[in-house]
């Protein structure tokens, strides 16, 4: 003998199921969007089309830079300034840098360096505590070398 179910599945039941399902999907989407926008501090490039047109030039520049075989080593001093030792460029080289907070929570800080008697470079500006991405640019005559380093 078959057991008879007394309740009916009505349109209201289906409506409740659909509203609950799409409500959960919307809540998850809004939560993920909030997390994504709170952890990304900026843009990668201003205009992706223009960046795509310059891509081959960037590759050529990277090959020229790699052929220079230059390198830098940086050390934090107690006064929060950077001491940078460059290997490769001549005595007339000039070093500059931009310090960027990885999550964009602090403004970018341009940095200038003074050449020391031992050949190293010492930043004029001190950086606050925290993590920083420092983008160096080392110029010696016509040669230009760039490097990015995470500090902190």
Number of strands: 7
- Spatial strand sequence of the major β-sheet: 1-2-5-4-3-6-7
Look at the helices and sheets and give the structural class.
Answer: alpha+beta
CATH class of the domain at 70-151: Mainly Beta
| Percent range of helical residues | 25-40%
CATH topology of the domain at 70-151: Immunoglobulin-like
Order of helices and strands: HHHEEEEEEE
Please state the average pLDDT score: 85
Distance between the termini: 75 Å
Low-confidence parts: none
The biggest sheet amounts to: 7 strands, antiparallel
The 3D shape can be described as: elongated
Describe this structure in words.
It is a single chain. The chain is α+β, with helices and mostly antiparallel strands. The protein has a domain at 70-151: Immunoglobulin-like (Sandwich). Helix content is 32%, strand content 31%. It has three helices and seven strands. It has helices at residues 11-39, 48-53, 55-68; strands at residues 71-76, 82-87, 94-100, 109-115, 121-123, 132-140, 143-151. Strands 1-2-5-4-3-6-7 form a seven-stranded antiparallel β-sheet. The radius of gyration is 28 Å and the shape is elongated. 11% of the residues are buried. The model has no long low-confidence stretch (mean pLDDT 85).
């Amino acid at each position: 003998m078959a057991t008879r179910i007394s309740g009916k599945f009505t349109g209201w039941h289906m409506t409740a199921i659909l509203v609950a399902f799409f409500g959960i999907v919307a809540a998850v989407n809004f939560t993920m969007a909030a997390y994504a926008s709170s952890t990304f501090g900026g843009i990668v490039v201003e205009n992706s089309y223009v960046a795509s047109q310059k891509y081959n030039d960037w590759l050529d520049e990277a090959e020229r830079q790699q052929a220079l075989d230059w390198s830098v080593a940086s050390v934090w001093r107690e006064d929060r300034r950077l001491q940078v030792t460059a290997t490769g460029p001549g005595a007339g080289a000039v070093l500059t840098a931009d310090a960027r907070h990885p999550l964009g929570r602090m403004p970018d800080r341009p940095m200038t360096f003074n050449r020391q008697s031992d050949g190293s470079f010492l930043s004029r500006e001190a950086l606050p505590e925290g993590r920083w991405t420092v983008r160096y640019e080392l110029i010696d005559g016509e040669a230009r070398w760039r490097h990015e380093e995470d500090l902190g």
